[in-house]
User: What shape does this take?
Amino acid sequence: MPTLSALLLCAFAATAQDSVTAEEVLDRIDDNLGPAEKLTAIQNRVYEGKLVVSGMEPGTFREVVGPKGYALIRTKLPGFDEFSEGSGWGTVWEVNARTGQGTIKSGVEAARSLRRYATLRHEPWRRLYAQVALEAGELDGKRVHVLRCKQHPRPGQPEESADQDVLYVDREANVVLRLVVPMSMGPETIPVTIDYSNWKRVDDILYAHRREVDLAGTKVVTTVERITHDVDLPADAFFFPEQVRTALNAGLPKEEDLSRIVVENVQAQHAAVIRKQCKLADIGKAMADILPKVMMHLSSIGAEVTGPPFSRYYAFGDTIDFEAGMPVATPIETKGDIVPVTLPAGPTISAWHVGPYEELSRTHTAVHEWLATSDVEIAGPCWEIYWTDPGTEPDPGKWRTQILYPCKPARDGR
Assistant: This one.
């Protein structure tokens, strides 16, 4: 029989353990995954293994997650075409194995996918949620930390109504045992449970090698057989499938209209951007940093992205002053260097550029030559909309960019 002092000691230990904060629990999880310098140095991760869905023959999966929001998940089940999903350069997508159609995700659905890819990438848990609350709990008879992780509210959504994930954390091992996330099924929202087990280290980094998902009674078990770091991926590793390119290109102008320069009345467009100054030669690198950061933030708050990425230019010279970002349905709030802007409404010169980004100056020059014989003049900074990007079309000769200049009647009346 335990002595009184032993019971008091156990009670004191439990109280001390319970005094930890929610943020400290998240930090312990991240610290336990591996050395910070190794986690941040990894450029990509490839997971491979077997997948079993309730009542079906086993299949296979391959999950590739790269830097800056790039991901490609492929699943193959007997009797079905390959199911694929992923993200990159501001787009979250999937290809349905039953219909073969590509879909572009947005809002909450895109945010959930990006959070899942972030966990595969071992991004810090703190970045994924707006608020975290800690409770004591039990899981399979074991005392655990229960973290209620509130997602960032969508624009216009009351903060108290934002969805929340629930994490069950092993108090001693500092690993996630269970994650419960909400999922929309028609008009209803149901909980999806993901159990993690068989935690093992690969190159000093800790991974769960078994995941069991319970979706409304349907169980999906993935067994990770191999995890590889910094794989020499092909240049087109994250190019979008043809079905996704089709979905992205829907609504683009026909070939015969691409050479026309016209004045259109456009509607005002809310957007989220990061503004930066850099050398002309560094714009591509700057865009590769800015756009994934903006998209990840918009997805984390459930913002509805309403179109492809764009950039707007304020000054050209030795240094380029520009902003880049994504259009959104409603204004966002400032978050660090991500700020809300509005693209102007009214008469706007529209021209299409077909070809590599390095040749965009050719079409800008054509616009200025057209202006010399028109009855309008430029009334503000121009912007470029990147309807096609390296993730949608491997051939730069087919990339389509729309160039827009706000305009007004010429003062000389020509």
About this structure: The domain at 15-129+152-162+171-229 is CATH 2.50.20 (outer membrane lipoprotein receptor (LolB), chain A). Residues 1-17 have pLDDT under 50 and may be disordered. Residues 87 and 285 are 19 Å apart (CA to CA). The helical segments are 4-18, 22-33, 36-41, 107-120, 242-249, 283-300, 360-371.
